[in-house]
Amino acid sequence: MSSRSGRRSRVKRGARGQRLVNDLVEACKNNQVGKAKKLLRKGADPNGEHRGLGLTPLIAASGLGHLDVIGELLKLRFIEVNCANRQGTTALFFASQ
Questions:
Q1: Which of 47, 55, 62, 87 could form a disulfide with 95, with the two C-beta atoms 3.0–4.6 Å apart?
Q2: Which residues neighbour 5 within 8 Å (Cβ) at sequence distance 6 or greater?
């Protein structure tokens, strides 16, 4: 994930896109920066929500204080830092806990 990497048009949709998002959230929960970069290159939506957990990648990383992966996500020009989960909670809220 370079500082201006990826375009929103490369984000995968449908069932494959959802699997990529789920995998990306799991990588962010586990602070797996290399895996997160790989998934983003494959087209995982950094603003997508894990179907089962209801977390975005940024929320998952922020809630656990994973600064390495948070830093990489924030480098994306189309990351939505105020993106909320199903309950209306943002990454900032989780980071402050």
A1: 62
A2: 40, 41, 75, 76
**pLDDT (tens digit, 9 = 90+) per residue, 21-41?**
999 999 999 999 999 999 999
Task: State how far the Cα of 33 lies from the Cα of 27, in Å rounded to an integer.
Answer: 7
Query: 33-42 vs 14-29: helix axis angle to the nearest 10?
Result: 170
C-alpha distance from residue 36 to each of 15, 31, 72, 88 (Å): 19, 8, 9, 24
54 vs 73: CA distance, rounded Å: 18
- Per the DSSP assignment, residues forming a β-bridge with 84 are 90
The C-alpha atoms of residue 15 and residue 64 are separated, in whole angstroms, by: 27
Encoding tokens for residue 10?
A: 């490369």
What is the pTM for the complete model shown? Answer: 0.85
DSSP, res 76: S
The residues that bridge with 90 in the sheet, in sequence order, are 84
